[in-house]
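Appendix B. Chain record.
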Amino acid sequence: MARAWRLGDNINTDQIIPGRYNVTMDRAQLAKHCLCEYRPDFAAGVKAGDVLVAGRNFGCGSSREHAAVALKATGLAAVIAASFARIFYRNAINIGLPVLIAPDAAAVLEDGGEITIDIAAGSIRDLTHERMFRAEPLPEFVQRIVEAGGIIPLVRQQGRLTAPV
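Structure tokens predicted for this chain:
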């Protein structure tokens, strides 16, 4: 069971992690400042396995992967949104952060609500109101990337990358 953290439409990468914190890739530091201006209670309150729920165009803005890294570093199980900015979506997949497109769920899931998700099946269950939602299923190769923890760990598992990155 996870807590839903609700955000609005057009949340940009600078709202996810302000530019002044993008001088490091230290995951703990990025997590500590994640959503610090937009949702000051988030970093201190998020628990491993929680889920972020957002509206349209989540992750718009810069192409830096810091935003996806900051979210993943907080322990989020996934981000559910009505839609994602293209570059953020790809960055999230590259680092193994599950991103689910589910407009119906994104429209009604409540902040603080209890939910469960099954990423492989694309199912979202709202335990607060006993509702089920479907997300667009992740293609099999994307599921493999997410399960491996990102594209680099997947390539390492396949034995195709041996040098440090």
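Further analysis of this model is presented in Appendix C.
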